[in-house]
């Protein structure tokens, strides 16, 4: 057991703590009477030291410190049952009320009459107001974003409808084909947008994302699902929204290309979309079991879809490789981590 500290020494130590405190603080005795306060306390709450010393903490000011829960917590702290680390309360003496965070520590020097309580106060009114303002701004931003997404979805549907109507009116088969391509691309972007809106997390889980995308592509472009199907195999990788958009657009272009060219003459076929992480990066591939591609990508004349895939892959710092032959064609987009990453 530690020997008791001389009362004068204990009092001097407690006052030294107050003097060195940059935060508002009070030194209370066992009856919760104010022994002394820090200069910052008097300044922060506009109180005269002569009117504070010797007064109960609950009678300070206009009685705004007389909060029943605070009284209970201070009594429990003196008894050693609890320790107040961060008790928040509203000090209602001013307009508007001030939000305070209180911490109380029992100073026991070995004698019952020497027990002291050090109460420190932090004014977090401005911080709480800032947090509330931030929450309000985030709420408003979410509402505006939801409205923007709704308008984007409506606009994409209108554009797709206009393209389809135009395709029905034109006489040229070539023009009709271009309009159908444009319609499919708009619908794929609409699908991507819907999937991203549905994802409420910062990260997009690719298996579900690509599955829903391919399901939408199949619904709009495959006339007989008994003859042609699209399957997705992917690991549990999640990526941020920007990367998921690029991957989704790549898949859209490659799947559309396979549906257009791999199965002529209403032949049966299957398209497989695969994404997997590996030790040095990731690989996205779209393969089919169609008629195959006799030329390599380098030898073939690049079309719009090929150019889009190349551009998107470049943004992802990935390379595109096409393996053609019979049966089928596989296009792989591979990202390899640099040794320093």
UniProtKB/TrEMBL annotation:
This is histidine kinase. It comes from Sphingobium agri. Keywords: ATP-binding, Kinase, Nucleotide-binding, Phosphoprotein, Transferase. Pfam families: HATPase_c, HisKA_2. GO terms for molecular function: ATP binding. Residues 242-339 form the Histidine kinase/HSP90-like ATPase domain. Its EC number is 2.7.13.3. It catalyses: ATP + protein L-histidine = ADP + protein N-phospho-L-histidine. Coiled coil: none annotated. PANTHER family: ETHYLENE RESPONSE SENSOR PROTEIN (PTHR41523:SF8), TWO-COMPONENT SYSTEM SENSOR PROTEIN (PTHR41523).
